[in-house]
Write a structure and sequence with these properties.
heterodimer, A: 262 residues, alpha+beta, 2 domains, five-stranded mixed sheet, 33% helix, B: two-stranded antiparallel ribbon, 9 helices, 4 strands, globular
């Protein structure tokens, strides 16, 4: 994994580099090497576009903003899930072929494009935001900055699904039918910890959404391009809420006397 | 739950990856570090002697609190809560000696075993589950993976109860640190002093405190469970402090682990006469 520091100096005149790109679909495929001339400042997505323009017009790649905000160009560069548009070539060792593959946790459609529609179906199954009764007679609410600071971090998510891709529960164990993945645990946390939200999702998290499958590898946190502290700030606090409700006899006892969400 | 109807890529074999970095290094270091501690602490716990230094109040953290003095020592340590080893407690189990350490080590051991940081670390280092991010796992698990959702790892949810006990240990080890500044001369008179051992024993509860009070469970209990942080009052400051420690939880986990081992080693060496404890004051 590149740490963000410059590994390869690319001269102003450019230099040659080899890109080993996955070509294929859901049934079969292979790596194909493309040698191109790269320039300073280029990112992996630029290189893929150059290959597409000069050598492989039929190379399929999904992209949009080229600014790390749309989450479209997710792929695996030298084995690590990354946004291609945010991976500078000088962060990679260009003396070796740069391996560019599609995400592994989702079905391949063609070349670098995967079918991420499973994520949209999962999102629909999470109970939506349900605000508590308004605080003021005019139908408005009052919140302090301290109340929203925590959930604002989760709202930085651009839904690139890199965290879903790197999560071994989905990637290696294919638990798509029992586990919603780190992206939607963050989404659940954003809703569940929202100061105005009155919905209750902890039971869903334990039973239908499989939060117990997470074994805290923190890989999701490592690959997040928005630097959301997924594991420590979203998943573990949710796990603790599940413990409160289902596994800790003392808090279960206290909850009898505690007022429920409005 | 939504299902995928299009075939997913083939599962990868153990260690199979396109990663070019030294992905094996972190789990290897974790494996070596934890193994070294487990081996040393088990050996130290089996000894049943040299866990205190006569003439001082130095006491190994691996034996503190001393519920009963070890049956292996002739003279009382002066640290035992309930006196000498009682007759109703066996001295060995299947030829393995039972010492005072075994009566208490389950508590800090359980706290670390169920710690969120250590869980992620040893799942990788010892069980290759996964061996590291985006690296193939042993193929036998496949879809049979159970995570912490089912037995046996569902018991990791007991972590908060180990936390409560760990807090108690912080106070006990802090007491040990305070009394380590008290020395006895040949006539049995006590006096204040500072030895290198006092400093070693003082740093121990400090590092353990940074680890224990940065625990994810404590962060949850002190305020994380609330949605409206502004209503926490003074606890918001505590929550912020815990969050601050929590951001370096891994660092505190390793520092404190190493120092517990080193403190026992120092006390043991001084007790055995291998090294001389230098008195600063």
């Amino acid at each position: 994994m590149s740490s963000g520091k410059v590994i390869t100096h690319i001269p102003e005149s450019g230099r040659d580099a080899i890109f080993r790109v996955w070509r294929g679909d859901s049934t079969a495929g292979q790596f194909v090497d493309y040698k191109i001339r790269v320039q300073p400042g280029m990112v992996v997505l630029d290189a893929i576009h150059q290959i597409q323009a000069e050598q492989a017009n039929d190379l399929a790649v999904r992209w949009n903003c080229k600014a790390g905000k749309c989450g479209s160009c997710s792929a695996e560069v030298n084995g690590m899930p990354r946004l291609m548009c945010m991976t500078r070539l000088d962060m990679l060792d260009l003396d070796m072929p740069v391996i560019v593959e599609p995400m592994k946790a989702f079905p391949s459609i063609r070349d670098l494009v995967t079918d991420v529609s499973w994520n949209y179906a999962v999102k629909k199954r999470i109970r939506p935001f349900r605000p508590r009764k308004p605080d003021a007679p005019d139908g408005t609410w009052r919140m302090q900055q301290d109340d929203v600071d925590r959930v604002q971090e989760f709202r930085k998510c651009i839904e690139c699904f890199l965290c879903q891709d790197v999560c071994h529960v989905l990637r290696d164990h294919h638990k798509h039918d029992e586990f919603i993945g780190p992206r939607f645990l963050v989404y659940s946390a954003a809703l569940e910890m929202h100061p105005l939200d009155a919905e209750h999702r902890v039971g869903d998290l334990k039973n239908e959404h499989g939060i117990g499958y997470c074994n805290i590898t923190k890989c999701c946190t490592k690959v997040c391009p928005e630097h959301i502290t997924i594991t420590d700030n979203a998943i573990i606090p949710l796990k603790e809420r599940v413990v409160d409700e289902f596994y800790d006899p003392v808090t279960r006892l206290f909850r009898i006397f505690r007022p429920k969400k409005a | 739950m939504a299902q995928i109807n299009v075939p997913l890529p083939q599962l990868r074999k153990l260690g199979e990856t396109s990663r070019r970095d030294r992905w094996w290094l972190a789990p290897l270091l974790t494996f070596l570090g934890l193994s070294a501690f487990i081996v040393y602490s088990t050996w130290a716990a089996l000894q049943g002697e040299h866990y205190f230094v006569p003439g001082t109040e130095y006491l190994s953290p691996m034996y503190s609190p001393v519920l009963f003095d070890s049956w292996k020592i002739a003279a009382p340590s002066g640290h035992a809560w309930f006196g000498p080893w009682p007759d109703w407690l066996p001295k060995t189990l299947l030829f393995i000696p039972i010492t005072p350490a075994f009566l208490i080590l389950w508590a800090p051991g359980g706290f670390r075993f169920t710690c969120y940081y250590y869980r992620g670390a040893y799942y990788k280092a010892f069980w290759a589950d996964p061996v590291n991010c985006a690296v193939g796992e042993p193929g036998f698990r496949g879809k049979a993976y159970r995570g912490e959702k089912k037995l046996p790892l569902i018991f990791q949810n007991v972590h908060r109860y180990f936390f409560y006990i760990a807090v108690l240990f912080i106070f006990l080890l802090s007491y040990d640190a305070i009394i380590s500044y008290w020395f006895h001369d040949a006539a049995g008179h006590g006096h204040f002093g500072i030895g290198v051992g006092s400093l070693v024993l003082t740093l121990n509860p400090i590092l353990l405190g940074c680890y224990t009070f940065g625990c994810h469970v404590y962060r949850h209990l002190v305020g994380g469970r609330k949605d409206e942080m502004s209503k926490l009052g003074p606890r918001k400051k505590v929550y912020d402090c815990v969050s601050c420690l929590n951001r370096r939880h891994m660092m505190w986990a390793w520092f404190s682990l190493f120092w517990v081992g080193f403190t026992d080693f120092y006390v043991r060496m001084v007790s055995m006469g291998v090294i001389h404890d230098i008195r600063i004051l």
